[in-house]
Design a protein that fits this description.
Blueprint: E1 3-8, H1 13-16, H2 21-28, E2 29-30, E3 39-44, E4 50-54, E5 61-62, E6 78-84, E7 89-93, E8 96-100, E9 105-108, E10 115-118, E11 127-133, E12 141-143, E13 149-153, E14 162-168, E15 179-185, E16 191-192, E17 197-198, E18 202-209, E19 217-223, E20 226-232, E21 236-240, E22 245-250, E23 255-262, E24 271-272
Parallel strand pairs: 1-3
Antiparallel strand pairs: 2-21, 3-4, 4-11, 5-10, 6-9, 6-11, 7-8, 7-10, 9-12, 13-14, 14-15, 15-23, 16-22, 17-24, 18-21, 18-23, 19-20, 19-22
């Protein structure tokens, strides 16, 4: 079987206040996203969200259902977003081949039965995967890097200049609750999602990539007055509960994919914080 998973349960914020560093990492860090010729997933009880990756090297890897879903096939009651962060590759979905270059995204709607991730002929394709429960069926669609709803944010003097590329959001295509895109930090900028915010109506997962060898990101999470650090390396991800801030600073410039699901599809629905208000 070319698919494996782990389960993460939801944690009350009062409990996290007493967590050790290792307990925080065990609860929220996804330390290994890509495994050779395998699909690796984390099923979280925050909005029943699934995050993980597929890394086919020698043969296609097929998306099979997992026991927590109690379904005949993976997308029987779910939708899925895929973003390629490796060499050009392709995904086969119900007989249709979707070519994905670096930064291209693919939305798969509820009811797609057969999904396979194909190796690249030019290197290693790395398919980052997010999935959420779906109440309706929307058409599957590739969204190329060039089709993203793009936003420039931040200022150089605050070391947070960045480009936000909204790929699988309702300004680009219809989804049930899944939203995905990625943010690129400009050279010389290190802070992401600053000023920070929370959105109690949605959970989120951050996947960090584009970090040079030996460089790291310090991801900050927790309630605004009870923040905690998590140190992440390249190709690691972190689960952000609805009650938590989610921002970070790196030892170099980097990129990250954000994926979220929850109560609404309003990308701008957030409760902002001033940097001086965090503790």
């Amino acid at each position: 079987m070319s698919i494996s998973y782990t389960v993460r349960h939801a944690v009350h914020p009062d409990e996290v206040r007493s967590y050790s560093t290792q307990q925080i990492r065990d609860a929220f860090l996804i330390d290994q996203v890509f495994v050779a010729d395998h699909i690796q997933l984390v099923y979280t009880h925050y909005d029943r969200y699934i995050a993980g990756g597929a890394m086919p090297l020698s043969t296609p890897v097929r998306l099979e259902t997992i026991p927590p879903l109690r379904s005949d096939y993976f997308l029987e009651r779910r939708e899925m977003g895929i973003i390629n962060v490796g060499a050009p590759g392709s995904v086969m979905a119900d007989g249709t081949a979707y070519s994905l270059g670096f930064g291209d995204a693919l939305y798969l709607g509820r009811g797609v039965r057969d999904v396979a991730f194909n190796p690249s002929g030019e290197g290693t394709a790395l398919y980052y995967i997010n999935s959420a429960p779906a109440h309706a069926t929307y058409p599957s669609r590739k969204v190329a890097f060039s089709e993203a709803d793009t936003l420039e944010a931040g200022q150089g003097e605050n070391a947070n200049r960045r480009t936000i590329r909204k790929l699988l959001v309702n300004s680009v295509l219809p989804t049930c609750q899944l939203q995905m895109g990625f943010t690129e930090l400009k050279t010389g900028s290190v802070w992401n999602t600053m000023p920070a915010h929370t959105h109690d109506r949605r959970m989120e997962v951050y996947f960090y990539f584009g970090l040079p060898e030996g460089q790291v990101v310090c991801h900050f999470m927790g309630q605004p007055a009870e923040t905690r650090p998590l140190w992440l390396s390249n190709h690691q991800a972190v689960i952000s509960p609805p009650w938590s801030i989610h921002c970070g600073a790196g030892t170099s410039s980097y990129s990250f994919i954000w994926g979220m699901a929850g109560e609404n599809l309003d990308y701008g629905d957030m409760d902002g914080l001033l940097p001086a208000d965090m503790r």
